[in-house]
Amino acid sequence: MSDPIKISIRNLYKIFGKNPKSVLHHVENGLSKPDLLEKHKHVLGLQNINLDIEARHIHVIMGLSGSGKSTLIRHFNRLIEPTAGEILIDGQDVMKLNEEELREFRRHNISMVFQKFGLLPHRTVMDNVGYGLAIQGIKGDELKERSQKWIDRVGLTGFEKHYPTQLSGGMQQRVGLARALATDCEILLMDEAFSALDPLIRTDMQTILLDLQKDLHKTIVFITHDLDEALRIGDRITILRDGAIIQDGGPQDIVMRPADDYIREFIRDINRGRVVQIGSIMAEKGSAETSGEPILVSRNLEDALPMVSASPTNAIAVVDDNGQEIGVVTSKDIMSGMERPAVAERAVKFM
User: Fold this and answer.
1) Prediction pTM value
2) Burial class (CB in 10 A: 0-12, 13-18, 19+), 14
């Protein structure tokens, strides 16, 4: 059973220029982004976005530079106003909120973590973490206690009195994450939040986020241009190109069933063994003689291969979360599943 829809986007368009609404009908009738710029001197940011984001999941929106991913996420809290379309959060049309309602919505319903940290340089770690709480009207001991809780959770205990310039990039981003979580908003927007970090620190931050999510179950919308990052943290992934959705699905859907050559080029160098799960490649129950301990259906291929190879029959029974046998997997199945797909004959041009 799927979780309820937290964010629903319907027929969303964003056009940048002097008079966006005057050219909207051209885009609706199929005018391309390059032609819109050449003929009408307007830039197409988003094109007919229709997307549902489930509650309590990490939903990754990714694409290359200029794909529209950061433009899209900034519509959720109306940092950018759309040219047309609806954004429903818990069934409420955010576009219909007046100024005061929007202010309250931003204070209590939605938090944001930015790529460049967005910390106030003249405030300490404690003051930065508590900034959103202060905006909510929380003061005194409660503010300090709640701020300290999240400072501890992100591993910054002892740095409460330090200033941002005294911290590394990874530590600064932990402050930004703690500040966003301290307000206890149900929705967390993360716009290229880890992109400015070194690879090892970036991996560490991904781990921190995943560990926190196990307890918090926030609705997280995460923007990235890195497919490895998307596949690691995303429960669902939406890939944009030129402001339009090219593919939307789970990590395995993206890797196993790419929508077109553009997506195939994206996933060409991905380690499929770390993404694809046994359930995607297993054969029918009883189709081969099995031996050894059964293997869980959600195991990835890379972890499963040594277990299956150690089996005398090179085949192991596959079980579900309840321990019920549902299939069988062989070493040959796994090796086939780990093979990279053939590269498309037609090269994909990246912008």
Assistant:
1) 0.87
2) buried
